[in-house]
Amino acid sequence: MRLLPIIVLLISMLPSGSFAQSKGFSIEDGEFRQNGQVIQIHSGEIHYPRIPKEYWRHRFQMMKAMGLNTVATYVFWNYHETAPGVWDFKTGNKDLAEYIKTAGEEGMYVILRPGPYVCAEWEFGGYPWWLQNNPELEIRTNNEAFLDSCKTYLQHLHTAVDGLFASQGGPIIMVQAENEFGSYVAQRTDIPAEEHQAYKMAIYNMLKETGFPEPFFTSDGSWLFDGGAIDGVLPTANGEGNVNNLKTAVDKAHNNQGPYMVAEFYPGWLDHWAEPFVTIGAEDIAKQTKTYLENGVSFNFYMVHGGTNFAFTSGANYNEEHDIQPDITSYDYDAPISEAGWATPKYMAIRELMQEYSKTKLPEIPKQIPVMAYPAQKVTAKMDVLTWLKKEKPVVADNPQTFEELGQGYGYVLYRKRFTQPVSGTLKIDGLRDYAVVYVNGKKVGELNRVFNNYELNVNIPFNSMLEILVENMGRINYGAEIVHNKKGIISPVLLNDFEITGGWEMYKMPMDESPEVKAASVKEGRPVIYESTFTLNKTADTFLDMSKWGKGIVFVNGHNIGRYWKVGPQQTLYVPGCWLNKGENKIVIFEQLNDQAQTEITFTDKPVLESLVLD
What we know:
Beta-galactosidase, EC 3.2.1.23, B-gal_1-like, Jelly Rolls, 36 strands
């Protein structure tokens, strides 16, 4: 009979302010052990890029007060390799080592999930977009070009976190060997099983050769262990609520012994644009948590705190009804700790339960970071984007080029084509990736939308007229077999009445990697506009921008891209961390793609709106 957590929650007693004593951590005789004593891992997943660095410690303290002793995190390759061969593990939220050290100082163990593939509702599942420019490279396969790129990434990552492993006295107790590979194997039946096996082992051996120490683990649905498990490596299950199923699957794949762990225990779920916000009841999650505690099952809440998909980091899914399902900016996830770091009823239910199983009193819940609904601020300047873009030098080609061919990863591209003869009929772009606003002579004539599988519209193009197509990348797919088809922009011929339009295409790049400088000018409704508001604050606090009256676009706050908004919902507000506001002058810049209604002010609220759904 396995020992119950009520007598083994030893690591929850670690003092705050010093590293978790992880040097004695091991997996022995089917148990997690600390200096020979059996322990359980009670973990929560949070991701360092989705939380301002200034709030990392607060979030760790929230986890500790909930009764957790471990934090799990993915590492995002494309977040750290900012351009081919350009690496950043130091600036701002990219300081992964500082994140891990801070967790250790708060008495938390760390589980590292380095990928290279992470899923995580993250753009391209963590892969750099430019990998697709190498015709010899195929991601997530036993492919030399891909494996060479993975090795370079893992070498840089190891250098960044070296000294922080348990064997070195640091907080990192386990490292994941690839991620949910069993799911991928089940979907990529076009690849021989021996090739899947070769790839899986190549990544595992690469981790070891690069210097990542044991113990390793894999994570998959318990019914997918055949594809994802590795001999001698601990298999953990994702989303498995049935303890008997968990133990049976682990025993079969791991020489009839544990330990038993659910590496992704879902207290909430992910959310897409134009779909209802998903919620899961606190009582259900507390009940499942109790089942794990009573049966000696270790677990990791995915997510215990989601945070925010800032900038262009959100990924996408797809299904039979939608060619793409872009993830919303909020990664609230209906998690126990809300997007803004608040204790929810779900948090309180889990904390109360964990207190019952802890031999010591849990820490007090940290004070909530202040939140304010600031007064509305007037728009102080605005600029027509089409006019602004046309002052730049375009790329000219016979056919539209993809973002990747243009050397651009994210943001927008304006495609322009002048017609010397009048024509009318059906404009069709089957290869639209992902959202387009179409203009004729500067006047909006319609929208194309991969989310709703809308790839064609009727147009009337007079003599000597300009067709303009402003295309947005809404996030590369991060899960499933379609991850290998992830180029953006216009990736197929543009057809008009089934005839291909060729010759003289102009392409203006608009990556929006920095907040644009607004040069005040007159604007017209229906044309894309950049709005600016400059204002003064006497004090700073967290807040939310109310975007319910706007159409579609992105927002910069003092240079920080805080993410996308879109009137279809369910998200109608954008979280603004108070640590990114200034006492004194502040500047908000909004790129509004649709501009169906001229905007005169920017409004704030002190609470998120994630429930409503507005469909065209």
